[in-house]
Every structure is written in C-alpha cells, then in structure tokens.
Amino acid sequence: MNYYNEIKNELINNETYKKVKDYSKNRSDLKTYYNVGKLLSDAGKHYGEVIIKKYSERLTLELGKKYNYRNLFNMRQFYILFKDEKVSPLGTQLTWTHFRELLSIKDKNKT
Asked: How far apart are CA 9 and CA 11, in angstroms?
C-alpha cells in the first residue's frame, strides 16, 4: 500500500467536497436572500419602507443579529438590482459578500 497516495487522495477528495459544499451553500444563501428581498420589496409596497425596520427588530430578537436592518435592506436592494436581469445572479461564482459590495453602485449602467 502506498500510504502517501492514499493520504493525498483523502486530502484531495476532502478539498473537492468542501468546494462543492461551499458552492451549494452559496447558491442557497443567494437564493434565500433574493427571495427575502422580493418579499421585503412587496411588503414595502403594502406597508411602507418602515416595514424593514420592524421586521429587522423582530428577526434580530428571534433569529439573531445577522438579520439586522442593514442586512435586510441589502437583501431588498439585491432583489431590486437583479429582478429584471436576463442572467440570474444565483448561477454565478460570486458570494453574498461580493454582491453586498456591488449594491453600493448607484447606476448599474455606468462602468
């Protein structure tokens, strides 16, 4: 038995698994944040922009700091930015962190 090759294969398999798992997690996060953004956008049409603040207060108490006002606002902006795009952001290699950086762009038609 070649222990080195066995060890190397185990490590390579683990790295491959982690990349696939990370990609799947990223896709799930993006899909969730896009859907939450859509729901927040729709809720805002019915209840006004203050609804994000109210929801963030409740979600922060029930689910943790991760769902504060800024994050919910970013999710809504993410939906607004990509809702009319022909290419889905969900199929990309970008992470939520990358998309949050892109949300600061005021005019997506300017480069």
From this structure: 5
